[in-house]
What does this fold into?
Amino acid sequence: MRGRRYQVTVGEESHVVEIVEIGDERFRARVDDEDLDVDARLPAVGPCSLLVGNRVYLVDVIEDGEDLVLGVGGWTSRARVGDPRRRRRGRPGTVAPRQQCLVAPMPGRVVAVHVDPGARVEPGSPLVVLEAMKMENEFRATVAGVVSEVRVTPGQAVNAGDLLVVVEG
It folds into this structure.
């Protein structure tokens, strides 16, 4: 497998990750010595959806200097991703605005909204509870910041891709 190769460090653990695109939004990832098939939905705004094996992960990815802040299922982790090509070219990493745009990953009904515009939140703070397929899913902040928009109310029906809340870091 030949693709883009990265050195990824999360906490004290370091991994070699190689990613090859094998089709439209389909990838093969090798993490150390383990091969994974990944189907990805990479929207312009909001979390990406990754299907790895039989599990779906909603992942917010925010660039913060040389680190990536990853939000998965209400948990956040900081990862350092080394791209050897970027070092060879001498290009520094870019810094994206620290923002979380929470979008509905599936159609459902808003059960609860835990924030109002202007509220300060920390990573892990509850934002919205969405009921879909008879399950309640709580979505949490992945960045520290101020809620700039709340576009839903309890009881409201939403479609997949609808913008629910925006947090500005």
